[in-house]
Write a structure and sequence with these properties.
Length: 211
């Protein structure tokens, strides 16, 4: 008897959205539901927040080390976001998808643009890449959320609001859009999208399946 399921490549799902859209909460909830979904741990030069662990939330490294890793060509993409450097290590993504593992990338809009560009000439990335934009129901709601979160200084909040204004114009570059008005609904939507992504035939290896 043939295999019931053909082998497949993993999904590399990029989720972007401005600070205050609720992206981190939505992606954390998805990861709790979808236990098999790996998280691409990024490098960053920003300081860890309370409770963040090196190697889990991020790899927290110095600017000097970050520059070295850029020079060594280790990043799939990198960008300066809100004044700090952030980058996705190619090793966090490509080896996994090749083995059929699904990976979630929580990266900003500049990073997503770079990965998309790279996928134009990289067949594996082209097959594995899926992109989701998470937006707030309105700009004033985004501002309210950023202010009530109160984890950042006024200066940082203002910088994030300025960036959000630019970022919110980019939603149409993504394949899927989620407007996070209600957190449970946003999580359910992302979960449903992910289930659909996992069934796409472009990632299945066809030879020998069915007959
Ligand atoms: P935070 O400092 O709040 O954890 O993240 C700030 C922003 O950086 C978020 O929009 C997040 O998606 C983005 N980010 C996190 N990791 C990466 C990465 O590896 N590359 C890029 N381009 N952005 C990232």
């Amino acid at each position: 008897m043939k295999n019931v399921k053909p082998p497949r490549l993993g999904v590399a799902i990029i989720v972007s959205g401005p600070s205050g859209a609720g992206k981190s909460t939505v992606t954390e909830r998805l990861r709790a539901i979808q236990r098999g979904l790996d998280f691409s741990v990024s490098c960053t030069t920003r300081a860890p927040r309370e409770g963040e662990k090196h190697g889990e939330s991020y790899f927290f490294i110095s600017e000097r080390k970050f520059e070295k890793r850029i020079a060594a060509g280790e990043f799939l993409e990198y960008a300066r976001v809100h004044g700090n450097l952030y980058g996705t290590l190619a090793s966090e993504v490509t080896d996994r998808v090749r083995l059929g593992r699904d990976v979630l990338l929580d990266i900003d809009i500049q990073g997503a643009t770079q990965v998309r560009k790279r996928a134009e000439t990289d067949e594996l990335l082209q097959k594995c890449l899926e992109t989701v934009f998470i937006g707030p129901p309105s700009f004033s709601e985004l501002e309210r959320r950023l202010r009530t979160r109160a984890t950042e200084s006024e200066e940082v909040i203002r910088l994030r609001l300025e960036n959000a204004k630019k970022e919110l114009t980019k939603w149409s570059e993504y394949e899927y859009l989620i407007i996070n008005k209600d957190i449970d609904k946003a999580v359910a939507d992302l979960n449903a999208f992910f289930d659909i992504m996992r069934k796409k035939t472009k990632r299945l290896q066809h030879s020998g399946f069915f007959i």
